[in-house]
């Protein structure tokens, strides 16, 4: 008697909710293997309820909001080029035909949104980690150079700051000009004459609008495409050396900058309507003796750290001071906003984490911390960076240490690379990556990754030694977003180079 062969897959008869309950325990790799079994299983694994938690686990939900990878166009070089250090250029580009749409795979259900985001984010992160990118560079300021030496009587042209968005990159130059480029081809769109601030954080771009803090205390906005001046905002008495810009709100701080250490003299924090160019609020110090030390801005909240050991939190929409936090540690150097928290960092080793709503101190720990051994107590932390998950503490001796918010020490550069001697200054931090330049070794510049398990890892040396005593100080402008980075390369130590801006496209 012949055996009967079932014609239907029993799994396909299960309710979708039950399928999700079963499949949610699988990894991304396992889900992909299951999807290869048959059409029914492919459709069962093609569910946002399965893929969004996997994206959240990898911290890839930002690719739905901050950068929409489902719509982000890939960079296509004008001529074939190798993909950075990772091999041929084709490996940089995502295999778009692997995403099922009605047009390219008739009869199959379209790939769900969060699976598409996972696939593309995995490819993008692999490009960063494995140094796969396309490169575009554009020269500037070659006049006055003889080989690698600058011999003109005119001041050397240097880049003070960089900012970008989409295919636009803007640079603030030492000769009081703004330059706007198209990063896809290196074409310079516009040169704007304006007394741009020398502060490295005084230039921002959002929603196609450039916001520039200026030497005369004003803030000017421009259209990134046309170069047209949009608004001029006046009120500060000193150079505007720090800006925050989220597309509709500008928060500005003015003062005097001493190298990379910011010294505030004008202790007013000003909030502006970026579209109308009007002043919304001025958050003032409580007295002339109380000076502003540091400012952070996140989700319409401003945090100001002051010399009286207080952190004041304001709502930029209502102007209300919603919390005043008093730290019991002296010499506060910075404050940092996170998800419902504000962090106070003090000169030396003390870190405190406060609940924004209640003002309660919910955590207190030392840097380097209880998990760290063989360190010099006198090698104090002098600057802190925060990426909403990890704390990066740079010490007096330029050692960068990595911590979780529970105070656990994860690693530092000197332990990760004991045979190397890095004297780093962090230039920009984004997610799990940061760019830092060496303060003594001819301006070497590096791209680093941050990992919860492996600590700090150097991905790539972006820039070699440069032939100038001021290389670590004046030539350190850098910028990056989720899909690209840009830095300035003036000239090599042993070869002649024309000053240029280099852009790496990872998507």
TrEMBL record:
Pfam families to which the protein is assigned, alphabetical: F-box-like
Protein name: F-box domain-containing protein
Coiled-coil boundaries: none
Signal peptide range in chain numbering: none
Sequence ranges assigned to domain F-box in this UniProt record: 8-54
SMART domains: FBOX (SM00256), WD40 (SM00320)
Record-linked InterPro entries: F-box-like_dom_sf (IPR036047), F-box_dom (IPR001810), WD-F-box_domain-protein (IPR050995), WD40/YVTN_repeat-like_dom_sf (IPR015943), WD40_repeat_dom_sf (IPR036322), WD40_rpt (IPR001680)
């Amino acid at each position: 008697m012949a055996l009967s062969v079932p014609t239907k897959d029993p799994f396909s008869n299960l309710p979708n909710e039950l399928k999700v309950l079963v499949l949610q325990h699988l990894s991304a790799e396992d889900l992909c293997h299951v999807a290869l079994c048959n059409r029914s299983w492919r459709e069962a694994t093609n569910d946002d309820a399965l893929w969004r938690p996997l994206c959240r686990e990898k911290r890839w939900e930002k690719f739905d909001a901050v950068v929409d990878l489902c719509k982000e166009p890939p960079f296509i070089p004008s001529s074939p080029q190798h993909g950075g250090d990772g091999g041929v250029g084709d490996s940089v580009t995502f295999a778009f035909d692997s995403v099922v749409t009605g047009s390219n795979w008739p009869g199959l259900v379209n790939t769900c949104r969060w699976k598409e985001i996972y696939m593309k984010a995995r490819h993008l992160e692999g490009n960063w980690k494995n140094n796969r990118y396309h490169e575009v560079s554009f020269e500037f300021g070659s006049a006055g150079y003889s080989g690698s030496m600058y011999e003109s009587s005119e001041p050397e042209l240097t880049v003070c700051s960089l900012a970008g968005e989409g295919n636009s990159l803007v640079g603030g130059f030492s000769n009081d000009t703004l330059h706007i480029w198209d990063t896809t081809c290196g074409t310079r769109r516009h040169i704007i004459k304006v007394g741009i601030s020398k502060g490295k954080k005084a230039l921002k771009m959002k929603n196609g609008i450039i916001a520039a803090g200026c030497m005369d205390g004003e803030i000017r906005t421009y259209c990134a495409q046309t170069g047209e001046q949009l608004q001029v905002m006046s009120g500060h008495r000193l150079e505007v050396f720090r800006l925050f810009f989220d597309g509709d709100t500008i928060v500005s701080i003015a003062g005097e900058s001493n190298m990379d250490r910011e010294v505030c003299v004008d202790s007013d924090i000003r909030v502006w309507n970026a579209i109308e160019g009007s002043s919304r609020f001025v958050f003032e110090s409580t007295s002339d003796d109380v000076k502003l030390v540091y400012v952070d801005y996140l989700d319409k909240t401003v945090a100001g750290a002051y010399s009286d050991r207080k952190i004041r939190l304001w709502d930029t929409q209502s102007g209300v001071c919603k919390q005043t936090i008093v730290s019991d540690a002296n010499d506060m150097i910075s404050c940092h906003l996170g998800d419902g928290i504000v962090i106070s960092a003090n000169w030396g080793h003390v870190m405190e984490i406060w609940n924004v709503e209640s003002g309660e101190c919910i955590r207190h720990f030392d840097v380097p911390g209880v998990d760290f051994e063989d360190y010099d107590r006198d090698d104090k932390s002098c600057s802190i960076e925060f990426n909403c998950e990890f704390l990066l503490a740079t010490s007096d001796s330029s050692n960068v240490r990595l911590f979780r918010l529970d105070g656990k020490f994860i690693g530092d550069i000197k332990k990760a690379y004991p045979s190397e001697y890095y004297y780093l200054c962090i230039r920009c931090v984004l997610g799990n990556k940061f760019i830092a330049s060496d303060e003594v070794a001819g301006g070497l510049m590096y791209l680093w990754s941050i990992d919860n398990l492996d600590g700090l890892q150097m991905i790539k040396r972006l820039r070699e030694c440069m032939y100038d005593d001021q290389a670590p100080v004046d030539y350190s402008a850098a910028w990056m977003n989720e899909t690209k980075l840009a830095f300035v390369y003036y000239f090599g130590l042993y070869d002649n180079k024309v000053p240029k801006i280099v852009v790496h496209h990872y998507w």
